[in-house]
Amino acid sequence: MLETKWGLRLVSLILALFLFLSVNDVFGTFFTQEQFNKAEEVVIEDVPVETIYDKENLYLAGAPKTVNVRISGPNAIVKKTESMMDFNVKLDLSRDTVGDHKKKFKVEGLSDKLTYELMPNNANVTLTEKTSVTEQVEAEISDSRIATGYELIGQEVDPSQVTITGGEDEVNKIAYVKATLDNKTKLSESTTEEAEVGVFDAQLNKLDVTVKPAKVKINIKVASSSKSVSIVPKTTGSLPLGYKINKISLSDDQVELFGKRSVLDGIGNMEVEVNLGEITKDTELKEKIPLPKDVTKASPNEVTVNIDIGKK
């Protein structure tokens, strides 16, 4: 009997203790704290780099625009840092002068409970005297952009000139300033597109310079490929006995053909067939101009043939 009473008291004590801990969220606090302190590691990619130097008089080459940062520490702080991005990466050359330098990146604003690693950890950069030049921009449009049966007849760049700023050595290497269209759409009509300006040396290596404006508009003029050629009559058959041809004349002696340029270039003239087999008097015929393969249109598309005959 006594043992049963003590057993009931023990069970009651355990239940009361469990109820007390639950009401006071002791278990929740314990697990939350454990989760908070759990170690976590992430890599934050493409963190912008702030460069500090004499921007008025010097030009900086070789500095990366972004770096990756690996951070590790308590889970909650790592997650907050990753989402808020409340820290800065700096490359400080404020005390450096013209020349080549190897500088370490600095991180500011990270919690002291975090450890970090920069990738890369440092940068090899060059400071040079700043200089600027104004250069003409050349539009570069690939032949593959032009639709079959059409050709590029003109292009205009707006603005036609840009200001290029950089170190004196780089600026002196400038050989080409190009605005290259990267759109792949086939062109069958005139249009305007935007293109980024690139600056290159004589070997077409891209130079480390700043261009303003960085993008320009290119007005592209496209028209159907065409060629004007002579029209000549080609007779078939023979006039009835006792008749002769005095003259064959055409209403038009030239025709403009439209189509693939390589085909047009191979055409010297266009023949219009005239059948003499059933003609016994002066006759006027309407004849279509035949279209060779890959020629899409002719203007005019037909001619009037006047046949003047007489008796022998």
What's the gist of this structure?
This protein has helices at residues 2-23, 26-37, 75-84, 168-171, 261-264, and strands at residues 39-52, 58-61, 66-74, 88-92, 99-104, 106-108, 115-119, 122-136, 138-140, 150-158, 161-167, 176-180, 191-200, 210-212, 215-224, 226-236, 243-250, 254-259, 269-275, 283-288, 295-299, 302-311. With 312 residues, it is α+β, with helices and mostly antiparallel strands.
What is the fold's blueprint, element by element?
Elements: H1 2-23, H2 26-37, E1 39-52, E2 58-61, E3 66-74, H3 75-84, E4 88-92, E5 99-104, E6 106-108, E7 115-119, E8 122-136, E9 138-140, E10 150-158, E11 161-167, H4 168-171, E12 176-180, E13 191-200, E14 210-212, E15 215-224, E16 226-236, E17 243-250, E18 254-259, H5 261-264, E19 269-275, E20 283-288, E21 295-299, E22 302-311
Parallel strand pairs: 1-4, 9-12, 16-19
Antiparallel strand pairs: 1-3, 2-8, 3-7, 4-6, 5-8, 8-11, 10-15, 11-14, 12-13, 13-15, 16-18, 17-22, 18-21, 20-22
Pfam families: YbbR
Protein name: YbbR-like domain-containing protein
Structural class: alpha+beta
Helices and strands, in order, run as HHEEEHEEEEEEEEHEEEEEEEHEEEE
What is the total domain count? 4
Low-pLDDT segments = 25-32
- Would you report the number of β strands? 22
Mind telling me the CATH class of the largest domain?
Answer: Mainly Beta
Question: If you average the pLDDT, what whole number results?
Answer: 87
